[in-house]
Write a structure and sequence with these properties.
Elements (H helix, E strand, L loop, with lengths): L4 H4 L7 E8 L7 E6 L13 E2 L1 E5 L2 E10 L4 E9 L5 E4 L5 E4 L9 E5 L13 H7 L24 E8 L8 E6 L13 E2 L1 E4 L2 E8 L6 E9 L2 E4 L5 E3 L9 E9 L7 E5 L19 H11 L3 E3 L42 H13 L7 H24 L2 H27 L15 H8 L6 H27 L3 E6 L8 H5 L4 E2 L2 E5 L9 E2 L4 E2 L1 H4 L5 H10 L5 E4 L8 E5 L9 E3 L4 E2 H6 L5 H5 L3 E2 H8 L3 H8 E5 L2 E4 L6 H14 L6 H12 L4 E3 L6 E4 L7 H4 L3 H16 L3 H17 L4 E4 L9 H8 L3 E4 L20 E4 L8 H7 L1 H12 L11 H12 L5 E5 H5 L33 H6 L1 H12 L7 E2 L6 E2 L31
Parallel strand pairs: 1-9, 9-18, 10-18, 19-20, 19-38, 20-21, 21-26, 26-35, 36-37, 37-38
Antiparallel strand pairs: 1-5, 2-3, 2-6, 4-5, 6-7, 6-8, 10-14, 11-12, 11-15, 13-14, 15-16, 15-17, 22-25, 23-24, 23-27, 27-28, 29-34, 30-32, 31-32, 33-34, 39-40
Helix pairs in contact: 3-8, 4-5, 5-8, 6-7, 6-8, 14-15, 16-17
Protein name: 4-alpha-glucanotransferase DPE2
Amino acid sequence: MVNLGLFTGNKPLKSRKVSFRIPYYTQWGQHLLICGSDALLGSWNVKKGLLLKPSHQGEELIWSGSIPVPPGFQSEYSYYVVDDTRNILRWEVGKKRKLLLPDGLQDGQLLELHDLWQTGSDNIPFSSAFKDVIFGRSWSLGVERPLGITQNKSDQDGSVLQFRICCPYLEEGTSIYVIGSSLKLGQWKIQDGLKLAYAGDSFWQADCIMGKDDFPLKYKYCKYGKAGTSVECGASRELSVDVATGESRFVLLSDGLMREMPWRGAGVAIPMFSVRSEADLGVGEFLDLKLLVDWAVESGFHLVQLLPINDTSVNCMWWDSYPYSSLSVFALHPLYLRVEAISENIQEDIKQEIREARVQLDKKDVDYEAAMATKLSIAKKIFTREKESILNSKSFLEFFSENQEWLKPYAAFCFLRDFFETSDRSQWGRFSEFSKEKLEKLVSKESLHYEVVSFHYYIQFHLHLQLSEAAEYARKKGVVLKGDLPIGVDRNSVDTWVYPNLFRMNTSTGAPPDYFDKNGQNWGFPTYNWEEMSKDNYGWWRARLTQMGKYFTAYRIDHILGFFRIWELPDHAMTGLCGKFRPSIPISQEELESEGLWDFNRLTQPYIGQELLQEKFGASWTIIASTFLNEYQKGFYEFKVECNTEKKIASVLKSFLETSMLVESEEKLRRKLFDLLQNVALIKDPEDLRKFYPRFNIEDTKSFKDLDQHSQNVLKRLYYDYYFQRQEGLWRQNALKTLPVLLNSSNMLACGEDLGLIPSCVHPVMQELGLVGLRIQRMPSEPGLEFGIPSQYSYMTVCAPSCHDCSTLRAWWEEDEERRHRFFQAVVGSDELPPDQCTPEIVHFVLRQHVEAPSMWSIFPLQDLLALKEDYTTRSAVEETINDPTNPKHYWRYRVHVTMESLLDDKDLMKKIKDLVRGSGRCYPQKDLESGQANGVGSAKLQLGSELPPLAQTNIIPNREAVALV
């Protein structure tokens, strides 16, 4: 290389050489590169990043590369997988890496960075669920040496190694050592090992000089303290250095997470409205969570899971009980307010009203409308007496300042909803379209309506205080509070009013036919305009997750498939059958024509022949035909314009039956008419008439069956391609745009509800991003299985015997005799006749299967846990079901038939549950004798400053059996 200094007369620039090394397996056509904040690493422009070269070293594929850098160089950087043209295919999850040159690095010396790819699961121990709750410390560590700072050892012969390990949880009085094959690492003896110093942010590091004879080096990290010694699991770590060159070097070993036995915990799931206490007014309340947390700790649980708790009062009717149809994704539901806790100075007449209401509302199920009306009525009376003092208090003004961006529109919406007696904003006159100017006038203190508006502020303020109190209580008790993030919002909501551009209001979301409903589901929510949302980097989503993170340390992403693709239906649909995926690559007209298909009307219009009409309606077919259909050619019919959609059919049918003599029920007639309408092979894209989508379960339609063989073969191939092949790359790309934004918006532990028709790209993406999946035994994700096998679940899952969207374990057992026999034979392994009733022994068997599963979490519906004791099985099992997904107007009103106070007194039940947890190897909360608080590992905490016992003279034999890690 030419020395430019010879020509300029200047001395050549001094530089150091930095070498990067990382093991990573790629597919053909994929490459690894480094991109960072400094210009030498591309200034975060991946096109200009440092491309690495691959080489095989044993069974590993190692990517490496190097650059010269000036003295004092520092940069952040990350690894990326790219294609041949440097388009990003995936990237590391987690914080950016930091590169600092060691102080002792001399001119011409080499700095080697040995890294490991950071996956989403590496971040799990740093989520608030683990860091702040389960591993929450009552003590703090002082930084002994900042991360990346290397001691100056350049004057000594040999290579300087910096060992760096991440350990999110360490008990008081415990230290971390590195031991290994070298004499410098104690030759596997802990007492002679290298002690690491705390570097901050859960990282530990230490430097050591290694000579030529120390390589190849084998080593492991270990903990040592009063609780004893624990060496990390898995095979020994190995390091080889090319000592033949005689070149001195600094080697920084970023060894990722300490490899320990994976943390596994258990939890309980119950909707907020289902909780019963002696203090509530007919429905569970936020402050009842403190009782639930106490019961969870006593029963050995680390987690309490709820359904969504946002305000859903769109219609001010009982069907607002549906918790997934949010009026506002930011506002909390007034239903969960404890009215007697909103003031310390409630007058005696109001206290008496509360006592009477408590008796009147103490029913078997939730009376949604009565509970809402009673709470708001009492709250208004208290508000009238103390509004001035509360609205001018420091705490309220702070709350208002922090939340006014969503609070003002929410309060205004509630006022307009009540004033116009509808949430349909098209009926609101000049307020139909949102504007900030109109909003500010409506909510100003000078407005005639300010008192009504400020009442909604007042309610939200107290809901915030009460939920915050319960959330802090859970954190101190070592219990993770897990919330639920609904996939949609109601089309008549605050969010669609304020941000109409973020939603596709002429569409509806749902799910294709699956385990829950053979006709698919139509949830009624508008689909998202992801293109518009991306313009501000998904600000609405980020704000939503930030708000949720104020109360929860974990959350469930409802229908996570919606972030890959959503099942989109026209807004005139009532069922979920005739939809299409968005986004998706449709079948083009040119594609169909090239396959010899030309008759698009035949394929896209309902195929209704006289034979089909007679088959469905019998002798009444002529009456049906004359009312709903026109005969466009001999023996073939089409729907009249006034009834050519599902909503039109439902409306015309209702009017028709008022004068008709037909005896068949409206529901059955509607279903048959819908069958006629849905009898198509292809669905035409309403926004591009040259694009088509195959109808779900196309082969079941009469339209398909009456086609010629060639047409059938073509459509079957295109159907399979559309649903199972051509979309995978698109859906993966879509998820990698949206999901990381959610995950980076808060520090909560994220779990995804990945049930239903699962594209093959979903689980790899979830694994890559560190998203915990869901496994329900009766809905196995493995093909060919009727029942899931909990012992084979992966660690990155939540396992449960049932959930709110299906029947309880008891009801499931008792509803199908033949299935019960198959389960008893395949899962229990018995050829005997199973009992008709789901006995406590059966419940114990199923729960034990789940609690012993490798899954990170086993979370049990409270109803399934109560079934461990016969005393709690007197109620009909069917009555314990929370939701019926096949019924869009299902009343969500289940209440546990026993109070939390009574459950806390039931030591027998808590012992049964605790014994299950303890015997499974899962961690359980154990009270600290002094503080009364819980910790996450089931062992006594150590005291700072206490002396350690003598180091045991133990030779550590490396364990080569790899163990799954957190």
